[in-house]
Amino acid sequence: MREVAGLWSGRIMPCVPLSSESRLSRGHAARMLIMEATMEYRRLGNTGLTVSRICLGCMSYGDPAATIAGSNLRWEWALKEDAARPFFKRAIDLGINFFDTANVYSFGASEEITGRALREFARREEVVIATKVWGVMRPGPNGGGLSRKAILHEIDASLKRLGTDPGRLVHACLAIR
After folding, report:
1. Is the pLDDT of residue 175 over 90?
2. Inside any domain, residue 177
3. Number of domains in the chain
4. pLDDT-based confidence at residue 35 (cuts at 50, 70, 90)
5. Choice between 110 and 172, residue whose per-residue pLDDT is larger
6. Are 48 and 22 within one domain?
7. Which stretches does DSSP call E strand in 62-106?
8. pTM for this structure?
9. Which residue in 89, 93, 127, 144 has the fewest CB atoms around it within 10 Å?
10. 160 shares a domain with 99
């Protein structure tokens, strides 16, 4: 058994594999993983939103083959939707209500997977989805960046991919040079 820093109240949480090869019985391992732990929540700046102290970053979920014309950028390590779904389910079960993605993660596939999973596992009013716009999403001089045109276009496209409504949280990533 190995121990890692816990996610709740600074506790140490045992990490026990639940495979059939485990040296511990499945019942014992399950009891060790089910701890009396409560997710902690904090106010997000002055937005009025209350979010879990842990945010599930969704860059790892998407389409490993996704690309856009003229780019060789790929997320070859990204998990497809079927493999990603258990992570969303577990996060919701643990009380995580804050999810972060971006328009460029797998060129939008991460937002699509995030939106579908959260619609299935959570009520929309209970979660906060943060997305970011900046990166190049299509060829051409206005295919990315932080111009007013690009921001408004990408917000609309992100909301559509996420399958959600406006009035939520959007980050703008600024490259400082």
Report:
1. no
2. no
3. 2
4. very low
5. 110
6. no
7. 98-100
8. 0.74
9. 93
10. yes
